[in-house]
């Protein structure tokens, strides 16, 4: 066989340099930075007490549940701007059948997931069939779903809020899947050994881990596995990186994208299920702007807006930054009006940093 | 000579009133490099697309291993052992070499009920296959975007060979490459031939074609203007037969006149 062709201009690169070209690097560094910042400015305000940690993790978890599938969809080169409105719509789909029509909660939940999944498939079909940018198609869904939610809710209940879900959900078999807490035994033990503080009455300051945090971690792990270790993940990267090449090699690009639109819609339904069962009510305005928050988390996480590159772990860090900053600003006593300014700036910096990292990845190996 | 693996028999293809191919016959045998030469608009692309199953011929027939065949789709063609490497190479620049190598045909490994992408096998195989072709990868996980043009071409060819191509259709594989890179690809063509693969090498560069080709077919305005074995023709004759030959002489004379007139 032919002599090996070795490029004499190649130098070997260290492990560190390879690590530096990972998509989630920026978000991981940003997370450390944000933690250090608030450890200094809010170190003694209770932000990093057990209670404070649970508080910001809960904020992060809700966003992270959306961000993981949104990251996959964005890597496949598409946007879903309808997830925010989908949250409001899904909430109403749980509350109205239960409160007004007497459906058991578990049935309303299944109904909500099924309808949202169907709308997600319609979003996907509309995008792949028309060839229009998903930005426009789902911008349409954003408005249509919000209008539908408002119209249906006012038409049926006469109000914009439906409450009274708590009492109905009390003995429902699916209730504990979406609300309530887990690992209370572990927390009690941690409290006994002094790692978790106690309240004045001697009980631990927190009674368990909210189940939404478990959903967040599990979803992130599943999405990461899908992306890096499954055939579907290969198709996601290819669909976003070079759809034509992928099609020529027999990758079902359309099916891949439609599946991802169904996943983002289902994530919105999960978000709504948690919110409705935790708060006991649904509101037509729920989920407003969540689509943008999810995109911010994903972009901070190193995913490329044009698709083909990114990670679900990065999106988890993005959501974590979001939660810490939101609660950190609250705990430090800074006017929370400044939160959005901070997050917007954070995203722009993240994009600059990430495009630098990606250029490195493409060049310096 | 061995029996051709694939052959076109007096194939014609029309697009409305345009005659894209008229009565073209073409074949390739295992272990042979058959060059298809022609200027832009000669019908090379139509011929490739007919061979690779994108177009069905309007007249004439395609035979695979002697049997008349109608390709239902490009995938159908690929399954019968005819792989086309287009100029865009069907590579995803942001994905790793190994993932590109197996894109659409991912190797899976079972862990109980879960089957997952066998990254270790993909990395090892991509590395070994390319090494056997003389391309030393730095890292099978490096993005394709970091490869040179020649390396990308080799990756696309190695992939087709690995997945059982008996005939390779290479569409202008050297046209966008520098001298060194082109020579790497030409070497790879010779190696594929040595493995018993029939190569259809489409080019308008006679110099590249003549080095590796066993036979040469010239295409002009949709028609075959002759097929020559290497022993029957030398490089200069081939150059003259190509669009360039006579036209270039005419052009030279014309330009000479213009120069004289303007200096007068």
Automatic annotation (TrEMBL), chain A:
Q: Pfam families this protein is in?
A: BPD_transp_2
What is the protein's membrane topology class?
Multi-pass membrane protein
The entry's cellular-component GO terms read: plasma membrane
Q: Where can this protein be found?
A: Cell membrane
Signal peptide as annotated in the record: none
Which keywords annotate this record?
Answer: Cell inner membrane, Cell membrane, Membrane, Sugar transport, Transmembrane, Transmembrane helix, Transport
Q: Which GO terms describe its molecular function?
A: transmembrane transporter activity
Q: Where are the transmembrane segments?
A: 25-47, 53-76, 83-103, 109-128, 135-156, 176-196, 208-227, 258-282, 294-326, 338-357
The record's annotation in PANTHER family points to:
ABC TRANSPORTER PERMEASE PROTEIN YPHD-RELATED-RELATED, XYLOSE TRANSPORT SYSTEM PERMEASE PROTEIN XYLH
Q: What does this protein do?
A: Part of the binding-protein-dependent transport system for D-xylose. Probably responsible for the translocation of the substrate across the membrane.
Which named protein is this?
Xylose transport system permease protein XylH
Give the taxonomic lineage as stored in the record: Bacteria, Pseudomonadati, Pseudomonadota, Alphaproteobacteria, Hyphomicrobiales
Automatic annotation (TrEMBL), chain B:
Q: Name one GO molecular function term.
A: ATP hydrolysis activity
**Segments forming domain ABC transporter:** 6-246
* Keyword terms, alphabetized: ATP-binding, Nucleotide-binding
By its UniProt entry, which Pfam families does this protein fall under? ABC_tran
Question: Would the keyword Transit peptide turn up in this protein's UniProt record?
Answer: no
Q: Which SUPFAM superfamilies match?
A: P-loop containing nucleoside triphosphate hydrolases
Protein family membership: Belongs to the ABC transporter superfamily.
Q: Which PANTHER family match?
A: CARBOHYDRATE TRANSPORT ATP-BINDING PROTEIN MG119-RELATED (PTHR43790), SUGAR ABC TRANSPORTER ATP-BINDING PROTEIN (PTHR43790:SF8)
Q: What is this protein called?
A: ABC transporter ATP-binding protein
Specify the species.
Mesorhizobium kowhaii
């Amino acid at each position: 066989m032919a002599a090996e062709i070795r490029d004499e201009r190649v130098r070997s690169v260290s492990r560190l340099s390879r690590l530096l070209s990972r998509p989630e690097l920026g978000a991981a560094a940003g997370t450390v930075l944000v933690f250090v910042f608030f450890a200094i400015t809010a170190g003694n305000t209770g932000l990093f007490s057990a209670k404070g940690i649970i508080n910001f993790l809960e904020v992060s978890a809700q966003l992270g549940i959306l961000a993981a599938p949104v990251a996959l969809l964005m890597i496949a080169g598409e946007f879903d701007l309808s997830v925010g409105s989908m949250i409001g719509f899904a909430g109403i789909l749980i509350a109205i059948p239960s409160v007004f029509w007497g459906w058991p909660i578990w049935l309303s939940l299944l109904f909500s997931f099924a309808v949202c999944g169907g709308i997600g498939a319609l979003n996907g079909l509309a995008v792949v069939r028309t060839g229009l940018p998903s930005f426009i198609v789902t911008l349409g869904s954003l408005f249509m779903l919000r209008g539908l939610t408002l119209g249906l809710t006012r038409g049926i209940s006469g109000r914009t809020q439906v409450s009274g879900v708590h009492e109905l959900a009390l003995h429902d078999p699916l209730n504990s899947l979406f609300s309530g807490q887990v690992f209370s035994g572990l927390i009690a033990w941690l409290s006994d050994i002094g790692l978790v503080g106690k309240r004045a009455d001697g009980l631990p300051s927190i009674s368990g881990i909210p189940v939404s945090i478990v959903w967040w971690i599990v979803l992130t792990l599943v999405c990461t596995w899908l992306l890096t270790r499954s055939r579907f993940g290969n198709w996601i990267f290819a669909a976003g990186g070079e759809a034509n090449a992928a099609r020529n090699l027999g990758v079902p690009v359309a099916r891949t994208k439609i599946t991802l639109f169904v996943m983002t819609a289902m994530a919105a339904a999960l978000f709504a299920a948690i919110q409705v069962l935790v708060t006991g009510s649904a509101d037509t305005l729920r989920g407003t702007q969540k689509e943008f928050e999810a995109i911010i988390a994903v972009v901070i996480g190193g995913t490329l807006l044009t698709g083909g590159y990114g990670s679900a772990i990065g999106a988890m860090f993005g959501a974590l930054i979001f939660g810490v900053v939101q609660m950190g600003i609250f705990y430090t006593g800074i006017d929370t009006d400044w939160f959005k300014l901070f997050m917007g700036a954070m995203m722009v910096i993240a994009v600059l940093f990430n495009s630098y990292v990606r250029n490195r990845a493409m060049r310096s190996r | 000579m061995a029996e051709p693996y694939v052959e076109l028999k007096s194939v014609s293809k029309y697009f409305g009133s345009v005659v894209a191919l008229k009565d073209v016959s073409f074949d390739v045998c295992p272990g042979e490099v058959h060059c298809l030469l022609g200027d832009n608009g000669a019908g090379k692309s139509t011929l490739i697309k007919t061979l690779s199953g994108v177009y069905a011929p309007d007249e004439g027939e395609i035979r695979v291993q002697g049997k008349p065949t109608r390709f239902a789709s490009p995938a159908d063609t690929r399954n019968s052992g005819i792989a086309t490497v287009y100029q865009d190479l069907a590579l995803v620049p942001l994905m790793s070499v190994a993932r590109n190598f197996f894109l659409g045909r991912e190797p899976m490994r079972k862990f109980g009920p879960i089957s997952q992408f066998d990254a270790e096998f993909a990395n090892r195989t991509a590395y070994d296959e390319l090494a056997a072709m003389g391309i030393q990868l730095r890292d099978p996980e490096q993005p394709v975007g970091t490869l040179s043009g020649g390396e990308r071409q080799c990756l696309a060819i190695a992939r087709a060979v690995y997945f059982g191509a008996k005939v390779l259709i290479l569409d202008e594989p050297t046209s966008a490459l520098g001298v060194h890179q082109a020579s790497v690809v030409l070497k790879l063509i010779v190696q594929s031939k040595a493995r018993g693969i029939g190569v259809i090498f489409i080019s308008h560069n006679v110099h590249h074609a003549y080095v590796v080709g066993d036979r040469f077919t010239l295409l002009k305005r949709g028609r075959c203007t002759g097929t020559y074995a290497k022993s029957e023709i030398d490089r200069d004759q081939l150059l003259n037969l190509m669009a360039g030959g006579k036209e270039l002489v005419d052009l030279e004379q014309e330009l000479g006149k213009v120069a004289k007139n303007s200096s007068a």
